[in-house]
Every structure is written in C-alpha cells, then in structure tokens.
Amino acid sequence: MMAVVEGVVPVTPAYWEEACKHLVKKDRVMRKLIPKFGDACLQTRGDAFVTLARSIVGQQISVPSAQKVWERFAALPRKITPANVLRLKVDDMRAAGLSARKVEYLVDLALHFDNGALHVANWAEMPDDEIVDELVAIRGIGRWTAEMFLIFHMMRPNVLPLDDPGLITGISQSYFSGDVVSRSDAREVAAAWAPYCSVATWYIWRSLDPVPVEY
C-alpha cells in the first residue's frame, strides 16, 4: 500500500462536486452512500516518482513496516529523485531493509524516469490506458498499482480498478447482498458511474473503511 507524503498540502480534484451530483442522480447506492461522508473526498500529494517508489517499498508488507523501511531508505539521499536513487549503493539500500528484488525495482523505476522512457511531461494530456502501458513496463509495477496511481496521483475521474479486491467486495455488499460478484457484474454496476468511476470507487472503499486512504 502506498502511504501519505508528509508535509505536502493535499489537493482535491475540481470535478468532485459535479461527480457526486451525477452519481446521486444515477445510482441508488451512491444516493445513500455519498451523504454519509460529508465533505470528505479524494486527495493527492507528493510527486510521481516518490509516489511510485513508495508503492514499491510497501509491496507485500504491512503499512507500519513499509513506513519504517521508507524512512530509512529516504534518509540515504538528500532528496528522493531518480538521479539520486541511481547513485545509491546496493548495500546501503539493502541495509535500509529493502529486499534484493525491491532494490532492482527501485533502480528500474529510477532508470525509466531518468532516461526519458516515461513521458511524464505529457501525462496530463495522455489517455489513461497509455499511462498504464508506460507504468506496467517498469519492473515491480502491475496494473493495480498503475490504476491506483491514476486515481490518487493523477486524479483521473473515470478509473475502474477491477483488480482491486476492496472494490469487488464493496460492490458485492452494496449491490448484491454479499453474494460473490464477477468482474462482469462489477463492470455492469459501474456503467451507471461513468464518467466518474474513480469517485464511485472511492465511496465504495469508504463503505468498507470510513477512514480515507491517501497515497
């Protein structure tokens, strides 16, 4: 799980209010769910490289453990940038608590940013799928991480992360009385959410855990 970046003022998407109005009008579950959470909404903070680096550090370990490893890793360079990460010694990164595989992933991430393989400056104008394609080419980043990046960093409004177990569980509980649902079932439910699937997904997550996640 990606974690918050401290000391950075979070940003809220401009479309949030419009999206909520749309969802309340189009979807019976959203009509009941959205008012429960008042002014709470999706927020983003940090920069692209740090967000993705934290996602790699946090893979397959608990949030508290990930935070500890991240703090030790982040203390190695003066600032977490692709160029600075590439200057780090492998032994120092391992000593911070990173596995050999995660070191490889972080180096590959830094290389992609440093050598221009990623069109970061163009991401704002690029379609979601093209950004996902660029990100999943990086070792250690799969489609789920790429879609979380689209939602929480890029704040794209219409991402439907069907690989996310929380989304599937929430749809099962809110729309199918707890019955097991397929990706096809979930996609059918989400047809009413477009073009604000990211917002509906955020509220489905809130139905399971009232505390918002920030990445």
From TrEMBL:
It catalyses: Hydrolysis of alkylated DNA, releasing 3-methyladenine, 3-methylguanine, 7-methylguanine and 7-methyladenine. GO terms for cellular component: cytoplasm; protein-DNA complex. Its EC number is 3.2.2.21. Pfam families: HhH-GPD. One of its GO terms (biological process) is base-excision repair, AP site formation. Belongs to the alkylbase DNA glycosidase AlkA family. This is DNA-3-methyladenine glycosylase II.
